[in-house]
């Protein structure tokens, strides 16, 4: 007797044949992955930056925020606003947050935003030499202040590290 195969049966047979041929063809690659394993993501590291590294990272994060929002964050929440911009692929969020802390006193915050720039557009500021962020003794999150009253280091809008009086 003559058996006529239905279309779904023929389709499944074709798929099975293609699958078997593909597995045979890729077997060396499959075997290598089984021995070695799949590649892992980037290794996470601990952040150990200096105060200058922190100032540079904070300036970069503030500029990224400014690029997106067309102004700097308000003073009462500037650290909260830029925290996600401090994260990199090789740092956990907790390690990235260390960029907001004083490296000499890791349990304290050590930076303040220039109160004259809080919530402002870059074009509203006369020159790039204006201090954007500076080392602060306020030791509180989201500190703002006047860099002319501070001691230590600061970073200007144009990215220069400066010694404060």
Identify the notable features of this structure and list them briefly:
alpha+beta; five-stranded mixed sheet; two-stranded antiparallel ribbon; 4 helices
Q: Specify the structural class.
A: alpha+beta
Chain-averaged pLDDT? 87
Helix content: 25-40%
Give the helix tally: 4
Unreliable spans: none
How many distinct beta strands? 7
Radius of gyration over all CA atoms, rounded = 28 Å
First-to-last CA distance: 103 Å
Strand content: 15-25%
Shape: elongated
Main β sheet profile: 5 strands, mixed
Q: How would you write the strand order of the largest sheet?
A: 5-3-4-6-7
Polypeptide structure, described:
The protein is α+β, with helices and mostly antiparallel strands and 165 residues long. 38% of the residues lie in helices and 17% in strands. The chain is built from 4 helices and 7 strands; from the N terminus they run ααααβββββββ. A 5-stranded mixed β-sheet has the order 5-3-4-6-7, covered by helices on one side. α2 packs across α3. The model has no long low-confidence stretch (mean pLDDT 87).
């Amino acid at each position: 007797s003559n058996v006529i195969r239905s279309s779904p049966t023929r389709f499944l047979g074709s798929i099975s044949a293609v699958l078997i041929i593909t597995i045979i063809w890729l077997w060396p690659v499959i075997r290598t992955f089984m021995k070695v394993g799949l590649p892992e993501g980037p290794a996470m590291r601990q952040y150990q930056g200096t105060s200058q590294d922190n100032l540079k990272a904070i300036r970069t994060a503030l500029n990224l925020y400014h690029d997106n929002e067309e102004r700097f964050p308000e003073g009462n929440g500037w650290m909260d606003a830029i925290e996600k911009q401090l994260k990199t692929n090789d740092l956990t969020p907790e390690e990235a947050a260390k960029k907001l802390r004083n490296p000499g006193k890791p349990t304290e915050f050590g930076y303040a935003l220039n109160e004259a720039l809080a919530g402002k557009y870059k074009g509203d500021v006369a020159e790039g030499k204006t201090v954007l962020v500076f080392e602060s003794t306020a030791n509180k999150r989201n500190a703002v202040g006047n860099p002319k009253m501070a001691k230590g280091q600061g970073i200007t809008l144009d990215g220069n590290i400066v010694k404060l009086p």
